[in-house]
Specification:
The chain is an alpha+beta fold and about 130 residues long. The protein contains 6 helices and 3 strands.
């Protein structure tokens, strides 16, 4: 699958994290640039290359399904096992999110309030009130 462009990742971030209020709009492009700076032409990046601040952003992107993390065990000298954590771009999800966008977050309380008619919101005084017919 072809590489993800900065524009594609920026749109996906805008349609997910920004739309859900998890990231300010001005942070979408810098975040996309930072993520792609780690990945370069590769599809994976080692977790230990990330700063703690960047790792937090990777976790946000993982929550939205744009990245995923995996681990594998590797045997090193003297029989010790090391666990290697790395991140992967979910290219198809990034492209889908950028093209279609994500559904706006649902807020059940807001839906209830929207379902109440305008007339019901107006408080009627005794003089304005009409008797039921």
């Amino acid at each position: 699958m072809p590489s993800i462009t900065e524009a594609e990742l920026t749109r996906a971030i805008e349609k997910t994290l920004v739309t859900r209020g998890k990231m300010p709009p001005g942070d979408a492009r810098p975040t996309a640039r930072m993520v792609l700076g780690y990945f370069g032409a590769d599809d994976t990046v080692l977790d230990n290359k990330l700063s703690s601040e960047d790792r937090d952003r990777f976790y946000l992107l993982e929550e939205e399904g744009l990245l995923t993390s995996e681990e594998e065990d590797a045997t090193v000298s003297r029989g010790k096992t090391w666990r290697i954590h790395y991140w992967l771009l979910k290219k198809s999800k990034i492209r889908d999110a950028g093209e279609q966008g994500a559904a706006p977050p649902t807020d059940d309380a807001a839906a209830v309030y929207r379902s109440i008619g305008e007339a019901d919101w107006r408080r009627r005084s005794g003089a304005d009130a009409k008797p039921p017919t």
